[in-house]
Amino acid sequence: MDTREIVTLPIAPIHKTRLISAGYKFVGDFTDVDVEQLSRGTGLNHSECEHLLNFITESKTFVPKSRLGSEIFEKEESDGRIMTFSEKLDEALGGGMQRGIVTEICGLPGVGKTQLCMQLACVVQMPEVFGGVEGEAVYIETDGGLVLERLTDIVAATVKHCRHIASRDSDPDIQNIVSSMAVDKMLAGIHVYSCHDNSQLLGTVELLPEFLKENRKIKVVIIDSVAFHFRHDFDDMSLRTRVLTNLAQTLIRISKTFDVAVVVTNQMTTRVHQGADKGSHIVPCLGESWGHACTCRVILQHENGSRRMWLYKSSSQPQSYTPFQITKEGIRDVAACEPQELMNQDYRDNTETDSSVDNPSKRQRLV
Amino acid sequence: MSILKSGLCVALNDEVLIKLRSNCIRTNVDFLCKDPEQIVNITGIAYKDVISIRNIILAKYSSMIVDGGDFYHSIIECSTILSSGIKSLDEILDGGLYSREVTEIAGDIASGKTQICLCTCGSTLTRGIQTVIYIDTGAGFSARRILQLTPNCSENFVSRVHVFDVTTIYELLSVLDKILALCKDGKLDFYKRLNLLILDNVASVVYPCLSNGNIVESQGLISLLSQKLKYIATGLSVAVLVTNNLVKGEHGKKVASLGRVWLNVPNVRLTIEQNDQYYKTTRKVMVTKNNRGKIGGSCTINFTEHGPIQ
């Protein structure tokens, strides 16, 4: 690796200029060079030179890691995904939210982005016997949308659901697991960060690897919403693009390194067309480059009074529309037999208790 | 060019080196730029030594002359045309992806760039013993999808693809360097049989360093990146496939991103046309640049769950 150019290393531009004007162009040029020599040649002080030399020596031995296609295949097949509690949504997503990628949830206000996030933060903690991944969640909220009462509702429903399944099973192990499940315990498994401006959000994401290193149980990182702080305060749009693409790459790195699912929500904005095709479209915020950066994009929509998920972008699943509903218990499938009822349904009014278990079509799949 | 070092040849010993350095001749370029007689005058090194150092530097760093006929034959021998796995696409590309060329697919969000990459990857894996390197910057690689897209592709085949997860341009450059070094080394079978390198997506690693107040740095990195990709393509006879985003250019027309420097880099550019009705599996692909063939050819690809419809 002696032929690696100095320019291609992540070194401060000012140091690069100094090194190049002193004649150092390749990593190989530093063989047998000591701090004293380097300092004389470049005019940088000793500590800077020492730092540079260490960094360059390190980069010489750096071996990029690669994975075999077959390893990835096995991982894709065996990896527990994070369910949404709606079988149809899971099916459309290829079994639930995938780990190791960044999934973006877009939608107009009130369509259920936060509800879906809360559902995920809760389901990720389900024990393996019930098809969960027994993880914990990091919840980074930016717009104060995380309502604890609502979260408690969903957590309680999940615990109840597990108890219900367990009641049909006499296996003592399952009984033990179920009796250890509690609403408080599950709430404690959701680590909430509140970010009040964009620098705080960026800082939190930058420091997240440290936190994840210490808490290996975390399987999902949720940012709700990523757009909130980036929709204002930016005069320089190219700066915003740069910051956002950098954020997206950092999130992808986090998802790969720690094998977590990263789920971010995004708001919608109106794009007015110019020229011949007059009119406007409602499109996700944050621009095109951000849209390219996320691996998977789903758009939640209202359609004829009910809700549906539009799988817009995914590298492994076909685009699709999937209806879902939000009940007191959280995200659920729409039962096929009651479309009329759904037309007038409001999630707060839905007092049907535990319909998810009584009605087989609403029951989540067990592995 | 590199810094002058003792050991390059007998005449260039430490003593000579110190003399040269004290007269601000530090690099090979400094040495070559100066007249030999001038060097003798200012440093007092023997004329004979200066000439021999000069000759050795020239011999070591200049490229060899090859006559056109030999060049043609050597290229014909080591070139291959890789099928993209999509018949209509191969037709507009005059057979498929050529080794020694950089092919680019530019398209909007969810336009099927990654799908074409996965398809090409699968189709290359099922033919012979060729290997593929997939550099993934957006976590879009899916082995499961390759198997779905490619008929007769089994789990054994996908073991011949190496996936590098890369999130910054610096990582990307070091991966490319490593690949070059291993290929030149020629010890590993995998790198000897390397036929295709896929970079999906180039824009997402370049964007974060673009226009960060230091235009020299960002443009420099783009040209270094393109130089390396070109070198991998021509030097190792590998087909290189990159994907890129589309941005609004002049007059509201969509063009491939990363600016004018990058526009020259790919030998062949395919543009996936904007489709207003996104909820469709068909995409229209057009050749918008081709160094060796016709441009303007287009085809429609229908991506279904089980592979493209031929």
Search tags:
heterodimer; A: 367 residues; alpha/beta; DNA polymerase, domain 1; Rossmann fold; 2 domains; 9-stranded mixed β-sheet; two-stranded antiparallel ribbon; disordered C terminus; B: 310 residues; 10-stranded mixed β-sheet
Question: Secondary-structure map with pairings?
Answer:
The complex is a heterodimer of chains A (367) and B (310).
Chain A: H1 13-21, H2 35-42, H3 46-60, E1 66-68, H4 69-78, H5 87-92, E2 102-107, H6 113-123, E3 136-141, H7 148-167, H8 172-180, H9 183-188, E4 190-194, H10 198-214, E5 218-224, H11 237-257, E6 261-266, E7 268-273, E8 279-284, H12 287-293, E9 296-303, E10 306-313, E11 320-327, E12 330-332, H13 339-343, H14 355-358
Parallel strand pairs in A: 2-6, 2-9, 3-4, 3-5, 5-6
Antiparallel strand pairs in A: 7-8, 9-10, 10-11, 11-12
Helix pairs in contact in A: 2-3, 6-7, 7-8, 10-11, 11-12
Chain B: H1 14-22, H2 28-33, H3 36-43, H4 47-61, H5 68-78, E1 81-82, H6 87-92, E2 97-98, E3 102-107, H7 113-125, E4 131-136, H8 143-149, H9 155-158, E5 161-165, H10 169-185, H11 189-192, E6 194-200, H12 202-206, H13 215-236, E7 239-248, E8 254-256, H14 259-263, E9 268-272, E10 282-290, E11 298-304, E12 307-309
Parallel strand pairs in B: 3-7, 3-9, 4-5, 4-6, 6-7
Antiparallel strand pairs in B: 1-2, 7-8, 9-10, 10-11, 11-12
